[in-house]
Structures are given as C-alpha cells and as structure tokens.
C-alpha cells in the first residue's frame, strides 16, 4: 500500500475555530484512522496560516503584534485539536522557522527557473480574501466578494508574478489524464469551466504591508499569503530543506488527499499543481473539496452571529458525546457538492435512530443473549458462519473502496447496514425462542456466535468514526484490534462477551430546533 498523506487547509489565525474547521479536520481524522487501521504508513497534517494583511490589521486593532495574535489564536486551534482528540501527526504554523526557511528556498527556485518574474498588474481585488479576480470573473460575481459580499476594488501593483499562464497546456493535459483529481465531479467541472477562460499570471508578493515572509533578494516585498500557505504541505515534510532527501517524511509526498472547502478550490486545484510542476514535483493525488455547513437554513456569518463555534459544539458533545458529534459530522455533513444544514432536532433524530437504536441496541442485545444463554462466553459455531463471512468480506471491500474514494458516508453506511442485517437475522431466527428448546442448543450457539462476529466486524469498520465507543464495544466483543485487513472470525470460541450500553437514550433538548 502506498503511504497515505492527508492534509487539512491551514486555518487563518484571525478567526476563532468553528464547525467548518472542526468538520474538515474530522473528515481527515476519520480517513487517517481508517488508513492506519488498514496498516498504511499514514501522515495527517493540519495547522495554522498566520501571515497576511488581515492578521496584521486585526493585530493593530487589538494593539498587539501580529505574532502575539497568531500565538494566541494558534493556541485556540491547538486546543480544538485536543478537545476533539484528533490524531494529527503534526501541526504546522507558517510563522515557524522551518516553514519560513523552506518557503524562501522554494520561491528562490521558482524565480531562478523563470516561473516567477517582476511585473505590473491591475485587477479586481477582494480585500477580505486577499485575492484578485479577472474581469470576467469579477463581472460574474457582480463585482462583490463571494465570501464577504463587500465590493471588489480596482487595484494596481508592481509585484512578482507566478507565470500561471505558461502552465495552461500542461494543466489541461494533467486534468485530462487525471479526471478524478478533483472531487466531487461537480467541482471538477467547475474548474474545467474556469480553465477555458484562460489562465492569468498571479501575483506572489505584496508591498502594502509587512507581515509575511520576505521575498528573497527583494525584501521590500513579502510573499503573498496564499503562496506562503500552500507550501505548508511540503515544508511540514521538510521537502524544501537543502538535504530534503534525508528527511524521514519526504516520502509522504505526493499527498493522497488534500481536503478543503469549496471556496479555496482554485488555489488548490490549479495554482498549486502549477507551482509543483514548476518545481518538478508531483501534484497531489486528489483534492477533495467539500461544501459548507449552514445553520437552520442560513449561512453562518459574523454579522448574523450564528457561527457554530466551539462553545456551541461543546453543548452537543456534553450531551451526546464526542463520537456522536463525529457521527453527525461525517454522515450528515456537506461532503459532496451540496451544503448541509445543521439542525439540532435532526442531530437528535439521527443519534437516536442510528446510534441508540441501531449500533448500541444491537451490541447490547447480542451481548445480553450471550450473557443469558451462554454465561457470557463465546459459543462454538457449528455452521461456520453461514452466509456471514462472505457478507462481511463484501462489506469490508466496499468499505475499503469507500475510504479510497473518500466516500466517508458510504464508509459509515456499510457497517451500519451490517448491524441492521444482524438485527434482521435475530428477528428472523428468534434465538430467544430457540433458547427454550434444548434440541436447538447448537443452532442457538451458532446464531449468537455469528451475531457476535458480525458486531465485531462492524465495530472495527466504525472505529475511525466512533473511536472511543467502538473501543468500548470491541472490549466486549473479542478485544482490541491490530492493523491489517478486517476479517470475519476475530472472536475465539470461549472468549468473554459482555453486554454494554454504548449510546444512552437522551431526551430531546428543550430549546427549539
Ligand atoms: N488559510 C486559508 C487556507 C490555506 S490552505 C493552504 C483558509 N483558512 S480558513 O481559516 O478560512 O479555513 C477555511 C476552511 O475552513 C475551508 O476551506 C473549510 O475547510 C473550512 N470551513 C470554513 N467554513 C466552513 C463551513 N461553513 N462549512 C464547512 N467547512 C468550512 O481559507
């Protein structure tokens, strides 16, 4: 298996963490856990994006240095990682020396190769996003920022530019050869549409502020925050160090998945691969651009003050548990091309239907029957699993494919269906009736052994999403797991099986929603 490198965007330190950041990080965390479970050499990176005009401005408003502001908010993001128990291998901050040094080295290489040149530029500038738009695009946007809604301004600068226009043909060939590069398909089509408008060179430096990485050789310029930021995916691996071949991490590149929100697709799907081409480095294997969480039908915004921030999230994790929160994020989130609406009533419904009534109920039911009829000892299965080993094997392959495709909804649904299958099997075979007939002892033993094995398989496949609950469940169904291919039959005859209450039934919250 290839090594498995996955990245989140690095988050701006002028915002406090909210559901959007937590969501993307959760998706990556689930994927990383799944790949580790499969035995892949996995590396999961997240971090903070700390330079740029916005940070400089916010810091000034608060009467502090940009570095102090960055330190304060990077700590907020690190705290979020801790609260959620994310399994990231590293946390990169763009103000770290390792990053600054390597970005300067990469930019020097780009300049030496002719991919970066000094030129003059005029265009439509989105001050909030620090991004230029072409005339066509600006017109499409109604000359307003697609993010903040504020008017775009006409701006002109002498700057260093990246020769994106020179990569049009190579990018087109790359997209044609890699039609799965951008997920989901709708986003791929969007990018292809914009590609047809023709590529324009992009400024890679700024002179109107100083909070950034100095442009090597011309230090009145600082490197544009987006160019600085994109390199984090490489600098975290030490791929831009003089002795990068000696780095223990450089083999992780190219990333298997770079997961982002849809609003930053152009940078990741077009500018980034072109920069990598200019550096003779391979493009990431896939970019997955998910959509947005909205809340009760409305976009979340500062002006509405309706962000689902960590404090709001905590009311859910306190009430339902962290795994239930992860479950809702993964199964009901905006993984694909449509936005997802966060409603607490819906959260409650899904928790009750899927976790309480399905996963929890099935594990408790099976554990209880093994307890009652076999003193909590895994009985022997004279039927060798019946149809279950095959059914489990197909669920496992579908699950692996779902992970490969970043279809985390399918990766949740497969094992959930397996659990539903166990419930149905119990309802059909009626072990509680068989138990009354001593002639049926072997049949009863086989049925309950099969149910236990299947609960174990499903629980293993659910560990990436529900790490602590499934660890608890597995403790009662055959014990801890080791990495490798998941297979039917992990519980030895004679092992202890315990009944457990995994997901408590909870009264719906009284607040509206
Ligand atoms: N710093 C840049 C990214 C640089 S990556 C080289 C940035 N940072 S950000 O703090 O604004 O984070 C944006 C990311 O947060 C989105 O791409 C997405 O992953 C996540 N989300 C922010 N709001 C979101 C929602 N409402 N819903 C889902 N995710 C969203 O852009």
Describe the structure.
With 513 residues, the protein is an alpha/beta fold. The chain is built from 18 helices and 14 strands. The strands form four sheets. Strands 3-2-1-11-12-7 form a six-stranded parallel beta sheet, sandwiched between helices. Helix 1 (19-37) links the parallel strand 1 (4-12) and strand 2. The protein binds 5'-O-[(L-methionyl)-sulphamoyl]adenosine (MSP).
Supply database-style keywords.
six-stranded parallel beta sheet; 18 helices; 14 strands; four-stranded antiparallel beta sheet; binds 5'-O-[(L-methionyl)-sulphamoyl]adenosine; 513 residues
Question: What's this model, at a glance?
Answer:
By secondary structure, this protein is of the alpha/beta class. 47% of the residues lie in helices and 13% in strands. Strand 1, helix 1 and strand 2 form a beta-alpha-beta unit.
For the sheet with most strands, the description reads: 6 strands, parallel
Whole-angstrom Rg: 26 Å
Give the number of helices. 18
Structural class: alpha/beta
Overall residue-averaged pLDDT value: 96
Main sheet strand line-up: 3-2-1-11-12-7
CATH superfamily annotation of the domain at 343-476:
Isoleucyl-tRNA Synthetase, Domain 1
Query: What's the CATH C level of the domain at 343-476?
Result: Mainly Alpha
Compounds present?
5'-O-[(L-methionyl)-sulphamoyl]adenosine
Coarse morphology: elongated
The helix fraction, in percent, is 40-55%
Write the layout of secondary structure elements.
Layout lengths: L3 E9 L6 H19 L4 E8 L3 H9 L4 H19 L5 E4 L3 H16 L3 E11 L4 E3 L1 H6 L12 E10 L5 H10 L4 E2 L1 H12 L5 E2 L1 E2 L15 E2 L1 H6 L1 H4 L21 E5 L3 H14 L7 E5 L2 E3 L14 H11 L1 H11 L7 E3 L1 H31 L13 H17 L3 H22 L1 H4 L6 H22 L4 H10 L37
Parallel strand pairs: 1-2, 1-11, 2-3, 7-12, 11-12, 13-14
Antiparallel strand pairs: 4-5, 4-6, 6-8, 9-10
Helix pairs in contact: 2-3, 11-12, 12-13, 12-15, 13-15, 13-17, 14-15, 14-17, 15-17, 17-18
Bound molecules: 5'-O-[(L-methionyl)-sulphamoyl]adenosine.
